[in-house]
Amino acid sequence: MLTLTVASLSALLETDAKKIVALSTLRQLGLMLIRLIAGTTAICVFHILMHAFAKANLFLIVGRLLFSRFAQQDTRFIRTTLLRKILILGLTISLLRLTGISFLSGFYSKEQILLGQYSLLRSVFS
How far is the C-alpha of 7 from the C-alpha of 106, rounded, in Å? Predict the structure, then answer.
């Protein structure tokens, strides 16, 4: 839980594009570790596959943004051109997938993790 919290807060305060993507990966690994401790590996495999697809898309988009900005990694200096608007739209969709918005792939994997945690806590305290 500590890894999940620290990585999330660090990603909120970071301005380097590559570090933001790396910290979101660390947060997802913390979530998967919580589920492994609970004992269900099938849900973790499903979540890591969904995470891998979304993260690959994120790395491609961030790499293209860095290439178009001549390796400037600071997110505060993004100028909006048509190409960057399209890339930022793709970036937003990938981030929504990772956050677990309804009817996207991250929703189903995180819902299973949270449901498993709820049932584990319910059985412990009943």
Answer: 18
Give the position of tokens 């981030």.
Answer: 95
9: tokens are 């807060």
Ranges of each domain in the chain: 2-125
Q: Give the residues across from 16 on adjacent strands.
A: 74
- Rg of the chain (C-alpha set): 16
Tokens of 112: 């299973």
pTM given for the model = 0.63
Q: Is there a contact between 56 and 33 (Cβ–Cβ < 8 Å)?
A: no
For 83, the token pair is 């190409």
A 10 A CB-CB count for 91 gives 20
pLDDT, one tens digit per residue, over 84-118 is 777 778 878 877 877 778 777 777 777 777 787 78
